[in-house]
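Working notes for the structural subgroup meeting. M.R. asked for a predicted model of this chain before we commit to crystallization trials. I am recording the input and output together here so anyone reviewing the notebook later can reproduce the run.

Input as submitted:
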Amino acid sequence: TTEIDATPESLTNLAEYVDWALEKAGNSGRFQRRYIVILTAPWILCGAQTMAHVFTALPTHRQRVCTHQADHCNYGPLADDDCTVLRSEYEFLDPANSVASDFDLVCETSMFVPLLGTLFFLGFLFGCYVLGSYADMRGRRATYLWSVLLVQ
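Returned structure, recorded in token form:
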């Protein structure tokens, strides 16, 4: 172990320097653990927000419905790539689970589902650029309040 009175220049390797710095600063306690939680919580929320578009754009499951023109009804689930069925002949099994079912993004319009993630990240990039410049001009507090108003 290193002595607390040692100088950083007298230490020979990184492990000794880290031990010396921790002894000098004080070992981790309640304050350090709380500080780590406070610093990491926004990054965890940011990761959850970034992954949200993956779960909201899940492919929708459809099933055939019985129409008045049909001679017989086949209520089985439809394959995701079955585009021969008209829109009036199927329904979504759980329409509240996906953006794809909200906007009927199946078959010809299914190409727009990956576009949702792309637009999200382009908005993220644009927001960082614009709000970063705004923070340099007006300050962090005003920028934070501005960004909250934009989201609402």
